[in-house]
Specification:
The complex is a heterodimer of chains A (187) and B (476). With 187 residues, chain A is α+β, with helices and mostly antiparallel strands. Chain A is 44% helix and 13% strand. With 476 residues, chain B is mainly alpha-helical. The chains are: A alpha+beta (187), B mainly alpha (476).
């Protein structure tokens, strides 16, 4: 890291470690109130109420999944209606395909609605998170490997308009961050 | 916690909640214990068990190939018993496959935090059970190379699926259920695979876990979408899990056969599926808990509450059995009446009474707290439920079919060795897959268990005086 600093590579951001979920939560509120935009907290599990502490709203994923579900429903209606009415009309039990015989078509509409919604939910979460991603500057910081075990980190990225290597560093130290380190992009 | 607390705005719990992880373990302990199972060398018992179950699985696959090359005549099925062990096994396995998604979806929506200790293993078990279930409908069609006719694929033969058939609903329901369960299970695995990646020593294993975890970083901007996806998947899976066994029951309920043609079937099948699934989770997790020393994660409180669910669903099943019998008496349909008298007092009386004893009588033992906290007793009752649920399907399918409307076609059904070993083969496939799962993937959802620890609450402040000790006392 020191070699990277010597060659004056652009900083990726400042990272600080916090001892617990509680301290991380309180620090997040202070960073939010200080008006930072490009920052994130990293924890081994989702912390209840952290969205509010970070000033983030509800994830828009729910609306995207609704569109996926609507797509699945439409697919099922067309998949069943077009062949059953026009391409391969099957008269079963003497019942034609019309408005009054729709209920037996419901189960497949239901299943396809669920199926496409679930696919949207699964892929949606990774697309919104810009994943899969092969590398990220945070992984160059050795201590960061504990984030999936029991460590809590707060990162303010250099892209933030209020970012300044020295001031942000001091700010994170003031709000209780430990091991405050400036990270440099490694490429 | 006296009267003075009532005036404060802070909610004080009169009875402190029991901790979900016992003995105040740290987050690092959870990672070490769970990930250690995968990282350490496989114990001897694992090799011995997988050798046995793998042999059964291989022999079962051999039986399936024998069936495919020879024809369904190698089974004992014959008119009037056209559906026998094949569909019994199918419904048995698909029923077992209901516990995992129930635990992960319905209990998540109900905010039952204890689910975090068992949901991963239960979901994995669900997938393997559905794999075993899927084998039977595919091979029982006889000419398996025609099985693609069930898919809505344009073809020159003018053969097109009848979307109004319950069998077609079944194809869609089971395949949707499997796909959604895989997605739900994998989404839950991603943060734990990231843990495995960060702990990995070797370059190769690190790269593998890196790819599998998609480069997860645990940032709250990621968790925000993740939690929403998890919640919505739970919401989607809840009607799905209830619909799958309902759809399976439509295969029977929409026919005109006495003993099948009842409207009670969907709720009755769903309750039975949950009952059988919970029994299988207990059957697998009790040994795993002891062998991997997970007593503090999968605690007696977890076993206790699962036993209560076993008792509850077993009682619903008992109600359904009794109500079917009552409706046969009250409905004044002579064929229905005959079918139910024949079920309990006909030539297969032993199967029906085994079913009734195992599914209704034995779970009643779980009313006793001492039994719910006794290893052998819980294991015994869950094994009873496993056997009982298999017999339930045998009773419903074979006994209803073997004496139909035309007495001249009545016939007893006897399984052949191929029937028996195909079923044992699927037991082998199921246990082999489960053993591979506990060997290569974290069997407890580490990130979720960490999130239910007291210190995971952002408003948690450790008591200043007494420290750890007073926390322990508060939970005792």
């Amino acid at each position: 890291m020191s070699a990277a600093a010597a060659t004056r590579k652009p900083a990726f951001g400042v990272i600080a470690e916090f001892p617990s979920a509680t301290t991380l939560y309180e620090a997040a509120e202070k960073v939010r109130d200080a008006g930072f935009k490009f920052w994130d907290v990293h924890s081994p599990f989702p912390i209840h109420g952290m969205n509010k502490a970070m000033g983030l709203g509800k994830s828009p994923l729910g609306y995207i999944i609704f569109c996926g579900g609507f797509l699945g429903f439409t697919t099922a209606v067309l998949l069943e209606y077009i062949p059953s009415s026009f391409l391969f009309p099957l008269i079963v039990h003497g019942k034609p395909v019309n408005f009054f015989t729709v209920p037996p078509f419901f189960p497949i509409m239901f299943e396809l609605t669920i199926l496409i919604s679930a696919f949207t939910a699964f892929f949606g979460v990774f697309i919104l998170n810009r994943l899969p991603r092969l590398h990220h500057p945070l992984f160059d910081y050795a201590a960061f490997s504990r984030v999936t075990n029991d460590a809590f980190f707060l990162v303010i990225e250099s892209g933030d308009p209020k970012f300044s290597e020295t001031e942000t560093r001091g700010f994170l130290e003031d709000i209780g961050g430990r091991e405050v380190t400036v990270l440099y992009a490694n490429d | 916690m006296g009267e003075s607390d009532a005036s404060t705005t802070v909610f004080v719990e009169r009875m402190p909640r029991r901790p979900l992880v016992w003995n105040n373990h740290s987050m690092a302990w959870i990672s070490d214990r769970i990930a250690g199972i995968v990282e350490n060398k496989a114990p001897l018992w694992w090799w011995v068990t997988i050798a046995i179950t793998g042999s059964f699985a291989a022999f079962g696959v051999g039986c399936i190939f024998y069936l495919l090359f020879t024809g369904v005549g190698v089974w004992g099925n014959n008119i009037p018993v056209g559906w026998a062990w094949d569909i019994t096994n199918f419904v048995f396995w698909i029923g077992i496959g209901h516990a995992g998604t129930l635990i992960s979806a319905i209990l998540h929506l109900c905010r039952q935090k204890w689910r975090t200790s068992i949901n991963r293993a239960a979901e994995a078990m669900t997938l393997f059970a559905v794999i075993c279930a899927g084998i039977f409908p595919a091979i029982h069609v006889g000419r398996i190379w025609m099985v693609w006719f069930m898919a809505p694929v344009p073809n020159p033969n003018w053969i097109w699926p009848n979307f109004r058939s319950p069998l077609m609903w079944d194809v869609f329901a089971v395949s949707t259920y499997f796909t959604v369960s895989v997605l739900f299970w994998y989404l839950g695995l991603v943060p734990d695979l990231a843990t495995m990646r960060d702990r990995a020593k070797g370059k190769f294993s690190r790269a593998v876990y890196w790819v599998l975890s998609f480069g997860w970083r645990g940032g709250n901007r990621q968790w925000r979408h993740y939690e929403m996806a998890y919640l919505v998947l739970a919401g989607l899976s809840t009607p799905l899990v209830l619909s799958v066994h309902s759809t399976v029951s439509f295969d029977f309920a929409t026919s005109v056969l006495p003993g099948w043609h009842t409207t009670i079937f969907p709720p009755y099948f769903v309750a039975g599926a949950i009952f059988g699934g919970f029994a299988m989770v207990l059957t697998l997790m009790l040994p795993a808990r002891s062998l991997y020393k997970l007593h503090d994660v999968f605690t007696w409180d977890h076993i206790d509450v699962m036993c209560k669910l076993l008792l509850f669903t077993g009682s619903i099943v008992g109600y359904a059995y009794s109500m079917e019998f009552f409706v046969a008496f009250y409905g004044a349909n002579p064929f229905e009446r005959f079918a139910f008298l024949n079920r309990y007092f006909g030539p297969y009386w032993w199967a029906s009474w085994t079913m009734f004893t195992c599914n209704v009588v034995m779970p009643q033992l779980m009313w006793v707290r001492a039994f719910r906290r006794n290893w052998a007793m819980v294991f015994f009752v869950s094994m009873c439920a496993n056997a009982g649920m298999w017999f339930e399907r045998f009773v419903i399918f074979v006994i209803s079919l073997h004496r139909d409307f035309l007495p001249s076609s009545w016939r007893m059904y006897y399984p052949t060795w191929v029937d028996v070993f195909t079923f044992i083969g699927t037991v082998g496939i199921f246990t082999t897959l489960f053993l591979l799962f506990i060997r290569y993937l974290p069997m407890v959802a580490m990130s979720e268990v960490k999130s239910v620890l007291p210190e995971a609450d952002p408003h948690y402040h450790p008591p200043a005086v007494g420290g750890e000790e007073s926390v322990k006392e508060a939970h005792a």
